[in-house]
Specification:
The complex is a heterotrimer. Chain A is an alpha+beta fold. Chain A has 17 helices and 18 strands. In chain A, strands 1, 3, 7, 8, 9, 12, 13, 14, 15 and 16 form a ten-stranded mixed β-sheet that branches. Chain A has a three-stranded antiparallel β-sheet with strand order 6-5-17, with no helix packed on it. In chain A, helix 15 runs antiparallel to helix 16 and helix 16 crosses helix 17. The longest helix of chain A is centred in the middle third of the chain and has 21 residues. By secondary structure, chain C is an alpha/beta fold. Chain C has one domain: Alpha-Beta Complex (Amidase signature (AS) enzymes). Chain C is built from 15 helices and eleven strands. In chain C, strand 7, helix 8 and strand 8 form a beta-alpha-beta unit. The longest helix of chain C is centred in the last third of the chain and has 24 residues. The mean pLDDT of chain C is 96. Classes of the chains: A alpha+beta, B alpha+beta, C alpha/beta. At the B-C interface, helix 1, helix 2, helix 3 and strand 3 of B face helix 9, helix 10, helix 11, helix 12 and helix 13 of C.
């Protein structure tokens, strides 16, 4: 960031949809993408006379998350009504946790540009999601399929200072939910959304200045761009009005990120803070959580992202960078471990997964997870290299072919292409070695004179003749034999 | 004495989204003020150290939850049968700005 | 010969089971009475005839075939129109919901239906149950059968009026601040409010969520007992429903108060008018004569009941009624062009003044800057009231008070909202403390009934009804019929 005298202060509120079967207070299905208004009950459409009943699985997933981030699990937590009028709200109040949230404190450990950083949480709580408004030219349609879906809202302390910190934090949160299998974390479908609270202040100033809120971002790229853009905007405004009172320069408001205009757009000013009139939800009883319940969940807690990261570094000897690349997406780490089953060469596998194939797939916009190359194929490729069935060089070409024909077995690819059959028998290589020696008497002389480079040159020439298929070790051995014999 | 004036009433109307005729507004202003004045007497009660009553029955201090199962849904047909305006299976409302509180 | 409408619900059922009366006969009888008398009373918002007749015929067939029959077989029942009966319109006596078809039945109604009750109609009420006189109904007021110029009480005015005039033996009401007991008192019948959570609120259109209960209005305590045995059950669609097994009421009806200590908060009753005061003293003598030990108790804190109630009930109501916005259901204003206008105009047109008043009051007491002074304060005083009752019930088994400070008043005679609210002073405490309470007829002031109220500790519903039964037998005011309605139609 160009502004060395200013510091950005960023807090993130992340809304994560839990992947329960049914909704938070209604037994309608928790599903995305169906026809409008087919996943509804009287509860989540706010019919008069309907009453909420809490889904026990939502509590369990919330507690899992709390344990994963080392927070305090509230033994007594309650729900509150948050009032506001909007058509996507079936009751014109949301049921949320304002006074006594279920998760208090905790921290997120995230890799920011290769360094592990700790970001403290304020709290996390359960609440129900709103329905969806679909905007058309002259009207809007309301679909309540999403209304009532369980959300965990995770509120960080205002502890981030750069867009990269924010996106790393967000990625780490996403990874935790993937590892817990508590959410499908599908950002395109809206099951993971970010609101950012952003203010700036001169470096060294202790108090926080007015912040604005950017709502409902659903991509890491947008998150970074929006924060960057907003921080610059605020700094510019302060710089342009050095004598104005800070409270007047930046006024609280809610913005959204416009990806086309590439800037934040004001949605509404907060002249008066929205009065949500929170009060305890009389239709629900408190959530009472015992030590025994917490212990039970702790015992069954699946491996968390940073534990897996540590395991990859310690047990497999992967570099921290590689380990973090693999573990940030649970599905990728799972893919990697699936490969490991039939190919116990973690460093090589890691390289092929995170470097070789990733590079080849970059243009297509796909990842290994979506491309249709099963783990067994990558494992086989690496096995073939390790066993010496093919050389490293050939393997690269095979990989190119695998990308061209996703799903084709690499063993088959190798079998079908004579250029990929390494020459592993001395019998077929020997004549070529003799030919090279015959054609390069100067190199022989150089070698005998003690220039080792000449040997490498001769090896290279043999490899050229065999179009890279010869086993380099064998070529080496044969050349040495012939050269020694001739001396 | 309660501080309830026209402005406060206007704000209240906005918060709870209710309109009324001028005559009704006068009646409401007068009545609500009267009731609020009456309610002032609660200040006489010493509630130092008293916990607010969030649940009237002690018995209610236990978890009430349901298992995570999908049950019978409200059919869309029945849902829309009561709808004032609908289109394509959705409730129809006038065009709004793309924002939500 | 006793006329059909003289029978209690239990008697009707017995006659039906024995074969003396057919269910169809019973239904015809009451429907005829309804058509003859209800125009004077305005007790019904909707009368059913086809469906109950169909069901009645089916019941007759089952009886003839000696097939099993429900506990309410042959009994016609009315449902206050803020309680859902699936497939029928629930208006809450509001214009807002005049076209709203209930998408599901309330648990209470479902339980009655399973026991073969015959539903004859939806009963009139104060709009959204907000009122004590049935005058705020958006359709028409209900009238008191003892004096047609008088209010039958509210908000369950229609239910009380119909039962008192014998257009039904039983009706469902709801009670948030006295809305079953006060109309029962005004109409000289029995009305019972259960312990909070004893009857499911699922399918009851919420007014004050932490105060509402569904309960029976009938001509005898035994009929109320029967209803409680059917309705007093745990419901897993209501998180505030008590997880307790159903109780036996009918087997426990008492005829004496021997061994029972009754607390009377004399100081709290100081403001009673002379007629009500005299009648109450007479009731106390009856209790004594039945063996009750009468003690004084201190419930002075209850003088703040109305203030606490009008903060908490309206706060809850302001959010409960927010869903009525013209978006998903209800009447949407035709002149509204924008979203804001849909909200503002639909609610302007759809709600009556009393409802608007309470919503605004409730919004005010929750709003930022006022919440601590009003809402939180009221919550704390509520705790004090619960504790006060707990203290009293450590030494007393029951508490007795009048139900109302005065008998039925003339319609349109009370214009001051505060005056209207103040008459709930004796009924509101039981809602604030979640206690079971019953109103039983105890005398007359001219043509107008007077009543005694018995309140029990939380969960002591059986005791309240069983001892009310003893008083009822001894006092002898139960089952009186207003003369104008004591004729075959």
């Amino acid at each position: 960031m160009k502004h060395e005298h200013w510091e950005a202060v960023i807090g993130l509120e992340i809304h994560v949809q839990l992947n329960t079967r049914s909704k938070l207070f209604s037994s309608a299905p928790n599903r995305f993408g169906d026809e409008p208004n087919v996943n509804i009950t009287e509860v989540c459409t706010g019919q008069p006379g309907a009453l909420p009943v809490l889904n026990e699985e939502a509590i369990r997933k919330a507690v899992q998350f709390g344990l994963a981030v080392g927070s305090k699990i509230a033994k007594y937590s309650t729900f509150d009504r948050k009032s506001y009028f909007y058509p996507d709200s079936p009751r014109n109040f949301q049921i949320t946790q304002f006074e006594n949230p279920i998760i208090v404190g905790g921290e997120i450990i995230a890799e920011v540009d290769g360094v592990a950083r700790t970001f403290p949480l304020s709290h996390a709580h359960l609440e129900d999601d709103a329905g969806m408004l679909k905007h058309f030219s002259h009207f809007a349609g309301v679909d309540y399929n999403r209304a009532g879906v369980p959300l965990i809202e995770i509120v960080s302390k205002p502890c981030m200072h750069t867009p990269r910190e924010a996106s790393s934090y967000a990625r780490a949160v996403k990874a935790i939910f993937q590892y817990l299998d508590a959410s499908d974390c599908n950002m395109e479908e809206g099951s993971l959304r970010f609101d950012a609270n952003i203010s700036v202040r001169p470096k060294g100033e202790k108090e926080l200045r007015n912040k604005i809120e950017i709502k409902n971002m659903n991509s890491f790229a947008f998150l970074e761009l929006a924060i960057e853009s907003e921080v610059n905007r605020q700094i510019e405004l302060y710089t342009m009005q050095p004598h104005a009172s800070p409270g007047k320069v930046i006024e609280s408001g809610t913005y959204r990120w416009d990806p086309e205009k590439k800037r934040t757009v004001l949605m509404r000013k907060k002249e008066k803070a929205e009065d949500y009139r929170y009060f305890p939800e009389p239709d629900l009883v408190p959530i009472l959580i015992t030590e025994a319940y917490i212990e039970k969940i702790k015992e069954k807690l699946p491996e968390l992202p940073h534990h897996r990261f540590n395991r990859y570094v310690k047990e497999f000897g992967l570099s921290e960078y590689s380990a973090s690349l693999l573990t940030l997406e649970k599905a990728l780490a799972d893919y990697f471990e699936e490969c490991l089953h039939s190919c116990p060469h973690p460093r090589a596998l890691c390289n092929w997964i995170t470097v070789e194939f990733t590079g080849r797939l970059k243009e297509s916009g796909h990842t290994l997870l979506s491309f249709g190359i099963p783990p067994a194929h990558i494992a086989l490729l690496v096995e073939m290299i390790e066993k010496g069935t093919i050389t490293g060089r050939i393997a690269k070409s095979v990989a190119d072919d695998m990308v061209k024909m996703p799903g084709k077995d690499p063993a088959k690819i190798v079998k079908e292409n004579p250029d990929y059959q390494p020459m592993g028998d001395a019998h077929s290589i020997e004549p070529l070695v003799e030919q090279v020696l015959k054609e390069n008497p100067e190199s022989i002389a150089d070698f005998k004179a003690g220039r080792t480079k000449a040997f490498a040159f001769l090896v290279g020439q043999v490899m050229k003749l065999t179009r890279g298929k010869a086993d380099p070790t064998l070529v080496n051995a044969l050349l040495h034999k012939k050269l020694d014999a001739n001396s | 004495m309660t501080n309830l004036d026209q402005d406060t009433l206007e704000n209240l109307k906005k918060l709870c989204r209710i309109e009324c005729t001028p005559a009704e507004q006068q009646d409401l202003l007068h009545s609500i003020k009267r009731i609020l004045d009456y309610i002032e007497q609660l200040n006489e009660v010493d509630t130092e150290g008293v916990l607010p009553c969030n649940h009237v029955l002690q018995m209610m201090l236990k978890n009430i939850t349901r298992p995570d199962e999908v049950k019978e849904c409200l059919s869309r047909e029945v849902f829309l049968a009561n709808a004032p305006d609908q289109i394509g299976g959705m409730i129809r409302v006038p065009s709004i700005l793309k924002e939500s509180p | 010969m006793k006329k059909i409408f003289h029978f209690t619900a239990l008697q009707l059922r017995d006659h039906f089971l024995k074969g003396d009366l057919s269910a169809e006969e019973i239904v015809h009888h009451y429907i005829k009475r309804i058509h003859a008398y209800d125009p004077k009373l305005g007790a019904f918002l909707k009368v059913f005839s086809e469906k109950p007749l169909e069901k009645a015929r089916e019941l007759d067939k089952r009886r003839a075939a000696k097939k099993p029959l429900g506990r309410l077989a042959g009994i016609p029942i009315g449902i206050k129109d803020n309680i859902h009966l699936k497939g029928e319109i629930t208006t809450c006596a509001s214009k807002f919901l005049k076209n709203y078809t209930a998408p599901f039945s309330s648990t209470a109604v479902r339980l009655l239906e399973e026991e073969d009750a015959l539903f004859l109609g939806k009963m009139n009420l104060d709009e959204f149950a907000m009122g004590s006189s049935n005058e705020t109904s958006a359709y028409f007021p209900a009238h008191n059968p003892w004096d047609l110029e008088c209010s039958p009480g509210g908000s369950s005015g229609g239910s009380a009026s119909a039962v008192a005039a014998r257009l039904l033996p039983i009706a469902l009401g709801t009670d948030t601040g006295g809305s079953i007991r006060q109309p029962a008192a005004f109409c000289g019948i029995v009305g019972f409010k259960p312990t909070y959570g004893r009857v499911s609120r699922y399918g009851l259109i919420a007014y004050g969520s932490s105060l509402d209960q569904i309960g029976p209005l009938a001509t005898t305590t035994a009929d109320c007992a029967l209803m409680m045995e059917v309705m007093g059950r745990h419901c897993n669609r209501d998180s505030t429903s008590l997880d307790l097994p159903p109780e036996s009421f009918l087997d426990n009806l008492a005829t004496s108060f021997k061994g029972i200590k009754i607390g009377i908060p004399w100081q709290f009753l100081e403001t009673l008018n002379p007629v009500a005061s005299k009648n109450f003293s007479q009731s106390v003598e009856i209790l004594k004569s039945l063996g009750a030990e009468i003690v004084s108790c201190n419930l002075d804190i209850l003088k703040y009941s109305i203030a606490v109630y009008y903060i908490l009930a309206t706060a809850e109501a302001s959010t409960n009624l927010a869903r009525f916005d013209g978006i998903r259901y209800g009447v949407r204003s035709k002149k509204a062009k924008t979203l804001e206008e849909i909200y503002d105009f639909s609610r302007e047109d759809g709600f009556g003044t009393e409802v608007k008043k309470r919503i605004m009051l409730g919004t005010y007491v929750l709003s930022s800057g006022y919440k601590d002074d009003y809402y939180k304060k009221a919550q704390k005083v509520r705790t004090l009231m619960i504790e006060a009752f707990e203290n009293v019930f450590e030494t007393c088994d029951l508490v007795a008070m009048p139900t109302c400070p005065f008998p039925a008043f003339k319609l349109n005679s009370i214009q001051d909202p505060l005056e209207m609210y103040l008459q709930d002073i004796f009924t509101i405490p039981a809602n604030l403390a979640g206690l079971p309470a019953i109103s039983i007829p105890s005398g007359f002031d001219g043509p107008k009934p007077l009543s005694l109220q018995i309140i029990g500790p939380q969960l002591h519903d059986v005791n309240v009804i069983r001892y009310a039964h003893a008083f009822e037998k001894a006092a002898g005011y139960s089952q009186r019929i207003p003369q104008a309605f004591d004729e075959e139609s």
